[in-house]
Amino acid sequence: MAVDIIRANNSYSEAQYSDKKVFVSDNSFQNNETTANAVVYGSLVARKSAKIVEALTVANIAKVVGISASNVETSGALVYATKGTVIENNLTLPEGVTLDTQVGETGLTLRDKLEDLGFHLEFADIN
User: Fold this and answer.
1) Within 13 Å, how many C-alpha atoms sit on residue 76's CB side?
2) Quick check: 34 and 51 in contact, CB under 8 A?
């Protein structure tokens, strides 16, 4: 949980809380190499080739394999979850993609695909 002090003086302070936690429990993780695009914590990753993953885009949505548990700027080792319970509202999705986006011609949504992989998506409201 992150805390930002918005306003402070001698008599009081005001804090704004935000929860960026993505992984809750029972998560399994894997390490693979990533290339080209930046991958941020909480973003979805897709299979590029045998041992290489990349950031999810509209073009590779059908190849989703997990959720990033680390930040990688351009290339390098990436840790990502392959199953477990996650907070869906803290996921970072590409522009134009939601959990209700259809994956190819399968009739499945991205939410369905993630659940098929073994993710349990929970909505968290900290207010």
Assistant:
1) 10
2) no
The angle subtended at Cα 51 by Cα 47 and Cα 67, nearest 5°, is: 45
According to DSSP, the residues that pair with 116 across neighbouring strands are: none
| Angle formed at CA 80 by CA 42 and CA 72, multiple of 5 degrees | 70
- DSSP SS3 for 112: helix
Residue that has been written with the tokens 């429990």 in this structure: 25
Pairing of strands 52-55, 76-87: unpaired
- Report pTM: 0.81
**pLDDT, tens digit (0-9, with 9 covering 90-100), for 62-115:** 999 999 998 888 778 899 999 999 999 999 999 999 999 999 888 899 999 999
Q: Are 59 and 69 in contact (CB under 8 A)?
A: no
| Contact status, residue 19 vs residue 35, Cβ threshold 8 Å | no
Torsion of CA 110, 116, 120, 121, to 10 degrees: 10
